[in-house]
Write a structure and sequence with these properties.
Blueprint lengths: L13 E3 L5 E3 H5 L21 E2 L1 H8 L2 E3 L6 E3 H10 L5 E2 L10 E2 L1 H10 L1 H38 L4 H12 L10 H5 L3 H10 L4 H14 L3 H9 L2 H11 L4 H14 L5 H13 L1 H11 L4 H14 L5 H12 L2 H11 L4 H14 L7 H10 L2 H11 L4 H14 L5 H12 L2 H11 L4 H14 L5 H12 L2 H11 L4 H15 L4 H12 L2 H11 L4 H14 L1
Antiparallel strand pairs: 1-2, 1-3, 4-5, 6-7
């Protein structure tokens, strides 16, 4: 049932190629030219001639689902309608747009609004607002009348300058009505940015413009064009203007993700520009305000990942700013609320791993804060829940590497906590399930090396637990399968050295097991294949010295 592109079971229209491979319509609309099936690479026709797979849509709609508010068992096709009217669904105050942050059950809504200062003020202002809207309607009608006069007079004065003179003579206002969604969809980068800036108070236009910028900035050459046009500041302004509009928040986060994607010098400048505009706080606020909207949570985590990436001083400062804004807790809440959404688990773990990286003075505190908030257990749970999804496994292993780093007492305690949660067995399973995926093998080996570090009693027990789970054979297999990947060779040697370290009989047995698995030969091959890589040379030589 999963779409092969976004790795999610999406509601709504499903498309298929002529061979019957199915993918969700939203992913199909984002395919870059030339459009090809993601499974068989068959050429696809125009998007407006896409083949609907209604049988697949019906199967998805028939899948069991439960109301996220009251837990009622229903189907995916019916759950949305039920949740809309569910008595347990949280309701916002009628004055939410005025600034009230209250949320509660329908039964409590009337009592709250009776004393809410925002709601009381809104009721008092209602007659004035109605009067203002009536006057606004009259002004719009007058504006339309003037436009009709302009159209009639422009026929006699050709050209743009002639039209401008006509509008001045009749006193017509500029053509500033909010554009339709179709008009926004046809805009280029500059026009979409201008529309977003001018009509930022209109949530419909804001969502449409952010979506258009997201699509345009999928092309690398448009990212800097968008930034130069002021798109970053306009997107952040839209997020800040519509905190309760989930669609605006989701599309804004997606647009930020793409604009801040590349990590070259210009890309880092765009990330810093986003931070200066308040992007980190806006994205974290979006995650906090809409915890049940999985798509928004996934896009928010992706935005945090891209904006906070970078290992220079500015990058580390961005990570620290994200932590101060509550990003760690918000991302963890997303992981815990949507454990079965593979794409969200992947993006969330990537965001966690990113925020918890860095060798600055505040780095250990960020890592410990994540652990204290439950990051280790959440990450291991994601690893166990999605064993066949390569992207999830890679990013989760990378997150484990960072969260379990550190050789002090706190670092060893985190490693033990990861082992207690089942991290060792889950990482070994990932290595075994994805033998040809370099990212999984690299980060999986690094995670094993970190979790198995330590020569105290519990550290030695972790090493033995890894060996019992098949870690030695899995790591050697990774080194043999990917001899050209320097990072796999380095991390493989590091993991084997930690697992095989020790002076007792169990450690000697582990070393013999590594010899039987041909670990010395793998280390020698790594040394010979990468003579210029100092890290591979150091780790490979130390492993060979330990085993031979």
């Amino acid at each position: 049932m999963e779409c092969p592109i976004c790795l999610e079971v999406q509601d709504g229209p499903q498309h298929q190629c002529r061979e019957g491979h199915v993918y969700c319509a939203s992913c199909d609309s984002n395919l870059r030219a030339p459009r090809r099936c993601p499974e068989c690479r068959m050429a696809l026709g125009p998007l407006n001639q896409a083949i609907r797979c209604r049988s697949h849509e019906e199967r998805i709609a028939a899948l069991p689902a439960a109301c996220s508010h009251c837990g009622l068992a229903t189907t995916r096709g019916e759950v949305a309608a039920h949740e809309q009217d569910c008595p347990q669904r949280p309701r916002a105050c009628a004055a939410a747009e005025a600034g009230c942050a209250w949320s509660g059950l329908l039964a409590d809504k009337a009592a709250h609004e009776a004393t809410c200062p925002f709601a009381v003020c809104q009721r008092m202002m209602a007659p004035l607002v109605a009067e203002m809207r009536a006057e606004n309607s009259q002004l719009r009608a007058e504006n339309e009348r003037l436009r009709s006069r302009v159209a009639a007079l422009e026929a006699g004065e050709a050209g743009e300058e002639g039209g401008r003179r006509v509008r001045q003579r009749v006193g017509a206002a500029p053509h500033d009505a909010p554009p339709s969604n179709a008009a926004v969809q046809a805009m280029d980068v500059a026009a979409a940015t201008a529309a977003l800036r001018v009509h930022v108070s209109d949530s419909r236009v804001a969502a449409a413009a952010c979506k258009r910028l997201e699509e345009l900035c999928m092309e690398d050459q448009n990212e800097q064009v968008a930034a130069d046009a002021g798109a970053i500041e306009a997107i952040v302004a839209a997020l800040q203007a519509h905190p309760q509009e989930a669609e605006v928040q989701a599309e804004g986060c997606a647009a930020l993700t793409n604009v801040c994607f590349v990590n070259d010098a210009a890309g880092r400048a765009r990330k810093q520009r986003a931070v200066a505009a308040g992007a980190i706080e806006a994205v974290v606020a979006a995650l906090q305000a809409h915890p049940q909207v999985a798509g928004l949570q996934q896009r928010g985590c992706a935005a945090l990942t891209n904006v906070c990436s970078g290992d220079d001083a500015a990058g580390r400062a961005r990570k620290q700013r994200a932590v101060a804004a509550g990003a760690i807790e918000a991302v963890l809440a997303a992981l815990q609320a949507h454990p079965q959404v593979a794409g969200l688990q992947q993006r969330g773990c990537a965001a966690l791993g990113n925020v918890c990286s860095g060798d600055d003075a505040a780095g250990p505190a960020r890592i410990q804060r994540a652990a204290d908030a439950g990051a280790i257990e959440a990450v291991v749970a994601a690893l166990q829940a999605h064993p066949q999804v390569e992207g999830v496994q890679q990013h989760i292993c990378a997150a484990l590497v960072n969260v379990c780093s550190g050789t002090d007492a706190a670092g060893r305690a985190r490693s033990q906590r990861a082992a207690d949660a089942g991290a060792i067995e889950a990482v070994v399973a990932a290595l075994q399930a994805h033998p040809q995926e370099a990212g999984v093998q690299q980060h999986g080996c690094a995670a094993l090396g970190n979790v198995c570090y330590g020569d105290d009693a519990v550290g030695l027990a972790r090493k033995q637990r890894a060996a019992d789970a098949g870690a030695i054979e899995a790591v050697v297999a990774a080194m043999q399968a990917l001899p050209e990947v320097e990072e796999v060779q380095e991390m493989g040697c590091w993991a084997l050295r930690n697992v095989c370290f020790g002076t007792d009989a169990s450690a000697r047995a582990r070393r013999q097991r590594a010899v039987t698995a041909r670990a010395p030969e793998a280390a020698t091959a790594a040394l010979q294949a990468h003579p210029e890589n100092a890290a591979v040379q150091e780790e490979g030589q130390q492993l060979r010295d330990l085993l031979v």
